[in-house]
């Protein structure tokens, strides 16, 4: 699956004339592109490059596994579904299985891809691959050295309360809760 599709034939397509690297970090890089607009004028676009990420809606006994951790950009603790970035050359499904066990201590015996989506297409290329499982077995937690979190299993009602309280406010977890609710109401995603 190609995450990026160039559409030079589309009338809104912006041709890249120049790319200027600004920053290269461990997780992201920043560049400024000069583009030709559809009307022939030029403009600049600030672009965050990211290797992509995975997230997992994991249900255990009709409860969703979530992790609670501090998020520095928001300066607060957040409740989120298990997730993490893709390692170089890693397939999304393998990353989803890895992240689920690392953060929750549960292994998925089977997993289903629900959707892949962009997080902030106005300035970032990050694609998150969302997976689902309710086929879990106990494994082992393997947190990264700089990762501090707790895992819990919450009901749909608790998840909706966390949204109202602002404890859940990230897009991937909101999408997960709404998908879970749809599955509960209709039997499918």
TrEMBL record:
Keywords: Hydrolase. Pfam families: NUDIX. Its EC number is 3.6.-.-. Residues 48-176 form the Nudix hydrolase domain. Its cofactor is Mg(2+). It is an enzyme of class 3 (hydrolase). One of its GO terms (molecular function) is hydrolase activity. Coiled coil: none annotated. Belongs to the Nudix hydrolase family. This is NUDIX hydrolase. It comes from Cohnella silvisoli.
